[in-house]
Amino acid sequence: MTNKTQLKIGLIIADNMEFKPFAEYCAKIEKMREGINRKNEFITVCLCKGERTIELTGVKCGVGKVNAAMSASFQIANGANLILNSGLSGGIANVRRGDIVAGTQYMEADFDLTAMGMELARKPDQEYLYDADPLLLEAVKKACPDIVCGRLGTGDFFLNNEEKKNLYKNKFDLTAFDMETGAIASVCYKCDVPFLSIRKVSDDAAENSPEDYREMNDKAEASLIEVVSRLLDEIFVQDAFWK
What range(s) does the Nucleoside phosphorylase domain occupy (predicted)? Predict the structure, then answer.
């Protein structure tokens, strides 16, 4: 069997300020192209080490589950071998503001058919809890030993309610909450494409979280793209990704 020499990796990012550090990272790389695809801004760069090449395409998809799922679908249709996601999240349990979390599992916590007698988040006749790709998860842990690992929950709303936060903590054992990861994970699961999300905790998902989120988001810090960059370095040297 011949090993691959090229990987196509899709990076899904929700909003302008989260995308800005990625754009600045790409501007330092010679082989770069950018544009609009299906009304989403994207940047593609080629990274090379030895005979191996990673074509990395970052897409600014917009906030929320529909936007994220559509972006994942388009990236996979365009040949992405792996899907990554980065962004900010509200902390639920065992994390502090500023921590960076690698998702071990993903779920749509707001999926609600309880009126039909089903448990919250359960989907009829299909999976509802999606695992991170084990190779990607181990690679990011090796690249960033201090990273926090935990389950991520997703909903189409900004979580700033202590009661709902405690519900998700106690019922689902969530580490953090966001508006995209569960939807991306669902698409990747159905398409058999490895997925990993890396999120930075911007707030505590309670009453004061909007102000804390805005403060961190407005800084457009480079910490997440730095973790992604270290993960890519690890992907380059691990033969398992190239088989």
Answer: 8-232
All domains of the chain in start order, with CATH = 6-242 (3.40.50.1580)
Tell me, letter by letter, the H, E, C secondary structure of 58-79.
EEECCCCHHHHHHHHHHHHHCC
Residue-by-residue pLDDT tens, the chain, 243 positions: 568 999 999 999 999 999 999 999 999 887 778 777 768 899 999 999 999 999 999 999 999 999 999 999 999 999 999 999 999 999 999 999 999 999 999 999 999 999 999 999 999 999 999 999 999 999 999 999 999 999 999 999 999 999 999 999 999 999 999 999 999 999 999 999 999 999 999 999 988 899 999 999 999 999 999 999 999 999 999 999 999
Instruction: Give the Cβ contact number of residue 116 at 10 Å.
Output: 8
pTM of the model: 0.95
Amino acid at 79: G
Dist. CA 9–CA 88, nearest whole Å:
20
Q: Which residues are paired to 43 by β-bridges? A: 34, 58
What count of other Cβ atoms lies within 10 Å of the Cβ of residue 66? 13
Determine contact, residues 55/8, Cβ cutoff 8 Å.
Answer: yes
Using an 8 Å Cβ cutoff, are 61 and 67 in contact?
Answer: yes
d(CA 220, CA 44): 20
d(CA 33, CA 52): 19
| Dist CA 55 CA 61 (whole Å) | 18
